[in-house]
Amino acid sequence: MKTIGNVINKYDVTFVFNENKEDNFKFMTFIPQIDEETCKEIVTLPKIVNICANGQIERKSIFPSKNPKDIKKCPINVGMGSLYPFGIINHKEKYKTFDPLNETEVRGLDVDLVKVLVNQFNGTLNLYFIYKKEENPFGQLDFIPLVLNGSLDVIAGGFYRIYGNVVAYSGIYTSQAVTWMYVANRTTKSWQSLIVKIDGLYIFVIFHLIYSYVWYFVRKFDEQAVDFRNTILYSWGALVGTTSLQDALSLKQRILNLTYLIMCVHLSAYVSLHLYYFLTVLEPPELLKSNDDVMRSGRPAFLIPISKYFVLDEKYLSFANASEECTKFQDCSDLSLLRNGVTIILQGFFLNYQARTAINYEAKVLSAAENVLTVYYEMLLRKNSPYVERLQKLMTHLFEAGIPDRFYRHAIGLTVIGKAHSACQNTVSNSYSCQSGCKITFDQFAGVFYLWLFGCVLSCGAFIFELFSKFGRA
Question: Do residue 417 and residue 320 come from a single domain?
């Protein structure tokens, strides 16, 4: 039986024995065990997995799993790549592929996750460095032979299902968005922006002219003295609140003045509301919701040359062709912030960058609401490893329990995520509060002073012209 066990120990084969020729049967099979000294699988005597007595079986299982559940502190070799926040390796530049790593030098979502998995096997975790291109791991296969020859059981650290069938996969345990990042710029408060905002003043100017003409013709009809120039000046002065209207000498003139004064009050309220809005409300920054909004915004794009053509869309490709080059996520982000541009960034990098660049508790950078795409992460497993099936089941259970998501947040940092979300909310909420918009500066009213100085210059010019005219006549 032991000789047979060495042959069939990996297969779903169960033997049925009837020892006493009664209606009692034993179901037996060979389940490999881990030898503590050699850490190799060995086959012992067959084990009873079920019993059928009087036509009833004790358990439903007849073909039990033969994958080891307890490997008795034997090592599980895990290769760890570098990608924030999955594998964060201190001084990663000093390591080469398959250099051993100390657990104190590595942290991240995948590190926490493999510790849980190894603990479930009662194994010992051995970590090894795997060099991977963080920005573009596609097509990089130099570390795959380490899985095929048995040197590594698992490869983790932010990998995808892009290596075909040469390896097995753990199953999806987390995902993150790839999105556009752009600078959140508010409109600067200035007297020019105030004038632009008050865009309905022409209506009052039209009514002012209508009143002036009507007043002129009414006075003419009543055969009273009237000067159209004085009518224009007095009605304008009343409109801006600097002088009174001309005296009304008839009922129709009084009615005309009354309705005009009501309009003057409305003008004052209209300007006051705009002034209050201008001083107390900060408009939200330009919000780019879709990918099309980003590409139509006119902002320069900063993209990594080796990885920017990952979306086969005509609009995106033309936009990517016109982009400027940068080397890494950090470089692209810094250039976008410095030059009011846009870049593509992973969600994990974005949250960290948003929290780090926040100013006065407000986000300096925002992300588009529409994702460019969503990346799903899986660990790579050695196909002939005895841990594959159980690892996949454990990963499924952990994913359903929300453990990877918790580790993801922990790897980025709960304070970092909280600060990023708070800064993003403040960018919008402060737009409609008086926390930072009520401060009044001379720059905001500079236009009034410029207008006054221009009037003084015109008055001086008119005064000089009158003097020269008087001396000329003399």
Answer: yes
Task: Based on the fold, state whether residues 272 and 292 are members of the same structural domain.
Answer: no
Strand-pair category, 154-156 with 88-89: unpaired
Side chain identity at 447, as an amino acid letter? G
As a whole number of angstroms, the distance between CA 330 and CA 311 comes to 21
Residues 6+ apart with CB under 8 A from 120: 390, 394
Question: What pLDDT is attached to residue 367?
Answer: 93
- 369/362 Cα distance (integer angstroms): 18
**Do the Cβ atoms of 61 and 51 come closer than 8 Å?**
no
Q: Which two tokens stand for residue 470?
A: 């008087």
Quote the pTM value: 0.69
Number of domains in the chain: 4
3-state secondary structure of 148: helix
Q: Within a domain: residue 460? A: no
Measured between alpha carbons, how far is 159 from 134 in angstroms, rounded to an integer?
Answer: 10
* 236 and 373 assigned to the same domain: no
Claim to verify: residue 27 and residue 122 sit in the same structural domain? no
Phi then psi for residue 123, to 5 deg, are -110, -175
Residue 337, pLDDT > 70, answer: yes
Q: Give the chain's mean pLDDT.
A: 84
CA distance 1 to 184: 73
Alpha-carbon span 431 to 283, nearest angstrom? 5
Residue 461 lies in a domain: no
Residues 240 and 262 in one domain: yes
Number of Cβ within a 10 Å radius of residue 88: 20
Do 22 and 102 belong to one domain?
Answer: no
29, β-bridge pairs: 47
Residue 108 falls in which region: left (phi positive, over 0), alpha (psi -120 to 50) or beta: left
Taking the chain, what is the end-to-end CA distance rounded to the nearest angstrom? Answer: 140
3-state SS assignment for residue 166: coil
Centre a 10 Å sphere on the Cβ of residue 143 and count the other Cβ atoms it contains.
Answer: 22
Instruction: Specify whether 360 is located in the same domain as 272.
Output: no
Amino acid at 311: V
pLDDT at residue 436 is higher than 60: no
As a whole number of angstroms, the distance between CA 443 and CA 189 comes to: 8
Pairing of strands 47-53, 106-107: unpaired
Per-residue pLDDT for 445 more than 80?
no
Q: Does the pLDDT of residue 1 top 90, yes or no?
A: no
Range of the domain at 198: 192-281
